[in-house]
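User: Sequence in, structure out. Go.
Assistant: Echoing your sequence, followed by the structure tokens.
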Amino acid sequence: MPRYSNVAIALHWLLAAMIVIAFGVGVYMHELPVSPTRLKLYNWHKWAGVTILALSALRLLWRLGHKPPADVPMPAWQAAAAHATHGLLYALFFAVPLIGWAYSSASGYPIVWFGVLPLPDFVPVDKALAEAIKPWHERAAIAMMLLVLLHAASAIKHHLVDDDGLIDRMRFGPR
């Protein structure tokens, strides 16, 4: 069965891990009282978001320049659902961090990537704008996690029920 390139596989799994961790940190830190731990987690979350944004751009560029393997035979509705899910995931890979960046900028908290590289404010400081943006970051992140769960469940279904080799296209190891 044809497989994705090692670069595509590495980017897939690295982004998957980072997205799940960033989501978990975001949910956890949101409920913490103001403290040094909360501030540290917010910075880590922002750094992860910027890294996810950069890796998503790299992944998209790689994908545009490298044809994926042929689709595994499946019913047309499943193929359409898979393509729609992938398209929405790619859109959210960019939307979630960009909305978070806008929220951070509007809140007046600049992002200094890994404490070294200050990023420009995405929007002007405006507390009312920040309050309007905040729920969109949360909603988009939840939508992305639901799609990630759907994507993972579909891959597991193809592996355990259909036994069609689909999951093998994104595994590390010998070809």
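User: And one key feature?
Assistant: The mean pLDDT is 95.
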